[in-house]
Write a structure and sequence with these properties.
alpha/beta; Nucleotidyltransferase, domain 5; five-stranded mixed beta sheet; 9 helices; 5 strands; disordered N terminus
């Protein structure tokens, strides 16, 4: 599904794209180094896990868990931030066609209840449990591991740039969340979720100031709390 399928109005720029500039030195691609090390230590199925959307002011945090088929690894897997939106969409389809994938979205209600870190950990654990194949080792992007994992887990800082499994998970999580933001835009177009994806863009702050928070905003995040306070003050003054 693209933005035209989700909704007939609005641009489809991607605030999350961070494709290197032409004059930037190329980064080495991720590899199977961490996966192979886990296999040498006795693992048979290794999953990669990553999230998209911890930082935005609105929308869910989305986690993907991926077990790659070693015989059908898509060419060009990389950290989702290093890829264009079109290339991510292509790889997303290839990953779903060739790998074992599980996706979990933690909505704003879970984020408010647990806080953003623990909501992410909640979604990571559930994503691993949702895989149709049972991994015996999990590689997780970042420096924090969820509690109660069903198998051995390893935190890999900058894992989406180092591990092919985590890179695949980063692509699935990013594309899934971006498409959810396009649907959010259809329901509340005044906020421009299709362009900034809920992140702290100037246009998003301007919309928050003009309209106050909407149904998709994270009301435990300070800018949303402040926008709601200002809306209340305006209502009292009126």
């Amino acid at each position: 599904m693209n933005s035209q399928q989700a909704c007939a109005s609005g641009p489809n720029s991607d605030a999350g794209d961070m494709v290197p500039k032409a004059d930037s030195p190329p980064l080495p691609p991720p590899s199977l180094r961490f996966e192979k090390r886990a296999v040498r230590r006795g693992a048979t199925l290794v999953a990669g896990v990553d999230e998209a959307g911890r930082g935005p002011l609105a929308g869910p945090v989305v986690v993907a868990a991926v077990i790659l088929n070693r015989r059908r690894i898509p060419d060009g897997l990389n950290d989702s931030k290093q890829l264009s939106a079109d290339r991510r969409a292509e790889l997303y389809n290839e990953i779903l066609d060739s790998a074992t994938v599980s996706v979990v979205a933690a909505p704003t209600t879970i984020i408010a209840e647990l806080n953003i870190l623990h909501a992410t950990m909640w979604a990571m654990r559930r994503a691993v449990l949702g895989l149709s194949l049972v991994p015996d080792h999990v590689l997780i992007d970042g420096n924090t591991l969820p509690k109660g994992m069903p198998c051995a887990a390893e935190a890999v800082i900058d894992g989406d740039a180092l591990s092919l499994s985590i890179a695949a998970a980063s692509i699935v999580a990013k594309v899934t969340r971006d498409r959810m933001c396009e649907i959010m835009h259809c329901e509340e177009p005044q906020f421009g979720f299709d362009s900034h994806k809920g992140y702290s863009a100037a246009a998003h702050f301007a919309a928050l100031d003009a309209h106050g928070p909407g149904r998709f905003h994270r009301m435990d995040f300070a800018p949303c709390i402040e926008a709601e306070r200002r809306r209340g003050m305006r209502a009292v003054a009126a």
